[in-house]
């Protein structure tokens, strides 16, 4: 997931469909997401960038640093200040749904049915040619392109998707940043993952005001397991820069991502804050009293960030843009100090 200076936010999820997934090098979902953020000023423009890249280059390749490939296609949730879209893909083919009202979620499965706002021009012809759709009556994208026999991970995704939809519906009409953080921390639903070989790597919640004079505020954990992480505010501004504590190390020409065949060795890409956070999690699990004190420090720091964002969006004493740009760095430093 990510955001850009124009208030465009994108998240992606893995999905498996009837279209075969190629193991050869191609654009990953994360590549498509990053390129769309780099090249777009709106959610709809980002959608066009992704579908254009799919048409020219396709998607696929292994998403992890391991000799055994793990490959998939992608679904995307795209939003800006004024609109939102869901884009779901199967190889170079795709369908998109413009979200007109309410709340929407995605989770490792096709979810666009008959409410299709835009689609690949050959989508239905391809489905007919493959014998997946008879060509008459209603065209349901998820029904036509979903695998008949779902992998176990896809079955689990169905429950996670339903739980996410229900949690959003409970807050319908009053969704807040805090409410979204609570949903992302929900382990019972499987949204916050920490089992089965998968862990929620990092989390993001964004406030996108319709008023273009107000800044978008993005809360980022930059650490795994949001139930025990701090959402820290990031605002694009004059002083905005990458915080060195959350930059993964690089390994030059000998990086296993650069050498061929790729991923034959493994390196430690965990950044400084990640290491500190892992030690903090260990303390929380071993020492109850110290762990509770540390968790309280996390909560207090997050609350401070939420209150700062609330004051800013309410127009109460907005700091200079240079200070806004350094807000995330300041919170990262304070979190690092807490773990030290």
Automatic annotation (TrEMBL):
Q: Where is the signal peptide?
A: none
- TM spans, by residue? none
**What spans are recorded as compositionally biased (Basic and acidic residues)?**
297-306
User: Cross-referenced Pfam families, in alphabetical order?
Assistant: Peptidase_C69
Renumbered residue ranges of the record's region Disordered = 284-327
UniProt xrefs under InterPro entries: Peptidase_C69
Which domain of life does the protein's organism represent?
A: Eukaryota
GO molecular function: any one?
A: dipeptidase activity
| BP GO terms, sorted | proteolysis
**Family as reported in the entry's similarity comment:** Belongs to the peptidase C69 family. Secernin subfamily.
Put simply, this protein is called Secernin-2
Which source organism does the UniProt entry give?
Answer: Phyllostomus discolor (pale spear-nosed bat)
Top-level taxonomy: Eukaryota, Metazoa, Chordata, Craniata, Vertebrata
